[in-house]
Amino acid sequence: MSGPFRRRKTLDEMNAWGAGTAVSHMGIVVTEFGADFIRATMPVDARSKQPFGLLHGGASVLLAETLGSMAANLCLDDPGKQAVGVEINANHVRAVTEGQVTGTARPVHVGNAMQVWEIRIEDANGKLACIARLTLMVR
């Protein structure tokens, strides 16, 4: 596999990372990965909606940070190192009220000390709902 990923994991192994955490509670499932991306879905339901019936911005950010963190850690070849999020920003550009959203993380910068990932979250029709940028420190 070319691209930034150094650790090889199966979809089952990636999904097991989230077992018993906010990731599994929110119904986030990693569905695909390629040479330079990782993709997951999240249902838009009672767990992820805000009181006015829309996808909660915090749920979108949780999906974005989950994808970016998983992707960043797959780029590390030293098992003693870990990439941890230090800053995330998100622009919520379209309301989603039902179905599911799909997030895709792609690298902007993969360095030895810092990584930056862009995460696009789209609705079931492929329309952009949220775009986020996650910065991670490698420690």
Structure characterization notes:
This protein has 139 residues and is of the alpha+beta class. The chain has one domain (11-138): Thiol Ester Dehydrase, Chain A. Helix content is 21%, strand content 37%. It is built from three helices and six strands, in the order H-H-E-E-H-E-E-E-E. It has helices spanning 11-17, 22-25, 57-74; strands at residues 29-33, 38-43, 83-92, 100-110, 114-122, 128-138. Strands 1-2-4-5-6-3 form a six-stranded antiparallel β-sheet. A hairpin with a 3-residue loop joins strand 4 and strand 5 (114-122). The chain is globular. The two termini are 25 Å apart. The mean pLDDT is 96.
In brief, what are we looking at here?
This protein has 139 residues and is an alpha+beta fold.
What is the overall shape?
globular
Strand order of the largest sheet: 1-2-4-5-6-3
**Helical coverage, percent range:** 10-25%
Please give the count of helices.
3
- In N-to-C order, the SSE pattern is HHEEHEEEE
Compute the separation of the termini in Å: 25 Å
Look at the structure and give the CATH class: Alpha Beta
Look at the structure and name the CATH superfamily: Hotdog Thioesterase
CATH topology: Thiol Ester Dehydrase, Chain A
Number of domains: 1
Uncertain segments? none
Largest sheet: 6 strands, antiparallel
Indicate the mean pLDDT.
96
Strand content: 35-45%
CATH architecture: Roll
Question: What integer value in Å does the Rg equal?
Answer: 14 Å
Structural class of the secondary elements?
Answer: alpha+beta
Q: Tell how many strands the DSSP assignment holds.
A: 6
